[in-house]
């Protein structure tokens, strides 16, 4: 009896696997991805998808998010958008495209493995990673920060560098997140200014300044200092006790896609455990909580994400830039 039950289970499992394989084999045709991922990451993503869906002829166009958007807008104006799927830096940009009616909802996307608040509730875009911003410091610094407020202490006077939200989408999200969650709000940024904080440069420049000792502290995305520490750089990265902001490198289907089946398959793959393991391989924190974190990161429950509403942030973005500019310029 037990053997018969086992045999039945084996047959059923085989049928499920066969059905999934047949489903993958049934998806075919051309698929164009527009992405802001680094070239190596984009190629790894495309290769992994291609291995799962070998009949899909997928290609990608890669550039920074502003240039990807400029290319898209030129195509919108011409009435001939070329992309089927977008995989870009942040959810605020996706919210803008959603508001313009440029994205297509995917109601049947399976997000059951994810906590609420990670993806767009209306399922127009979906998070693929959690790239957080915290504090980096040089190991020779006498003060070892654990809180965002530590950057306003006298020990950090004239020793802090951070990206400007006037030039960086991720920095804008970070600023809106901190001012919306820290009890001092915008007064926190006024205190940073009073403490001699330099707001200029990209994340790579912040890392360089702190690693060389030109500055002792910085606000920066997590993976850069964690990777450089592993290579021997004299830096440490801190996830502050109040929590961190994050960008989620969301993926979405462009409205008017010429291959909706393949576009949906790409979303399914990005959200699957297999797809999330690609993010892990690339050295990022996968958005899916049942996938491990890269080496050098703390336990997932030690990383506290501050609440963030992409739609609200989109509405506040112009005012936030003006407020920041009034403080730092």
TrEMBL record:
<dbReference type="GO" id="GO:0030975">
    <property type="term" value="F:thiamine binding"/>
</dbReference>
<dbReference type="InterPro" id="IPR026045">
    <property type="entry name" value="Ferric-bd"/>
</dbReference>
<dbReference type="Pfam" id="PF13343">
    <property type="entry name" value="SBP_bac_6"/>
</dbReference>
<keyword id="KW-0732">Signal</keyword>
<feature type="signal peptide">
    <location>
        <begin position="1"/>
        <end position="24"/>
    </location>
</feature>
<dbReference type="GO" id="GO:0030976">
    <property type="term" value="F:thiamine pyrophosphate binding"/>
</dbReference>
<dbReference type="GO" id="GO:0030288">
    <property type="term" value="C:outer membrane-bounded periplasmic space"/>
</dbReference>
<protein>
    <submittedName>
        <fullName>ABC transporter substrate-binding protein</fullName>
    </submittedName>
</protein>
<dbReference type="GO" id="GO:0015888">
    <property type="term" value="P:thiamine transport"/>
</dbReference>
